[in-house]
Amino acid sequence: MGCVEQLNYEILLSKARFKECSTFISSNYDEYYKIQPGYRMMNVFIIGVPPIYVAVDGDNIIFPYTKPCHGTFVLTISSPEEVKKIKTTGKLVK
Amino acid sequence: MNDKRKKALLLLGCPEVPVQTSLAIYISDLLEKSGVRVTIAGNNAALGLVLTADPAGYYINDTADLDATIGGLSEKRVDADICYVLIHNDAGVSYLATAAALISGEAVGIIFGNDAVALAQQCDDAGLEHIRARAVHNPKPIISKVNMEVERWVASNS
User: Fold this and answer.
1) pTM of this prediction?
2) For chain B, what is the radius of gyration of the CA atoms?
3) How far does CA B33 lie from the centroid of its chain?
4) Is B1 part of a structural domain of the chain?
5) How many domains is chain B built from?
6) Is B108 inside a domain boundary?
7) FRET label pair with B46: which of A89, B9, B34, B70, CA 20 to 30 Å apart?
């Protein structure tokens, strides 16, 4: 089990409520998917209140990441593998 | 030897609200006395506070890293008959929703702190079971509700 710190991520929204992160993703991206809590992305497990949205923008994947003391962040990582995986396993919303 | 006892999981949030550590030890003791095996999961700081408050290990038998526990639940290597999630911020509601989706047993939020009412509403909106009281430094407002909740669960599972 790893930590998000080991990934080369960029923060798009920080220390927000989970719902604000869901709205950020659904409002700013043309392609996004619904996943179940506990979905594994690289070496981290995504938590949240369903529906949990993960967006795709080219080779970038955009997802919510919650820390117990700091709230939820929206992160983006370049990962063609994860983009391919979400297109197969996620439920397309838009 | 196979441990046939029911399994309980306590998920701790950020330890910034003082009552959390006392609540964790109190709930663990209640459940253990009822014959339930308890694992307390949290981040390093939350577990450090709990373990420091019980140096001889009278009340705490098993602890686990929070992220590793979520991974274990997700991959079905970890499960529980009851999961109590200690909540005092928005992140706590996310952990409760995740536990509720992943465990085979019940998941119940124990909401405390200054934002207890708003967080309880978030849980209601998401259909998540919970108890709540506005306890920050003094655990008394939530203890009777904890007693009733644990008694309810133990009675319905014995």
Assistant:
1) 0.95
2) 14
3) 16
4) no
5) 1
6) yes
7) B34
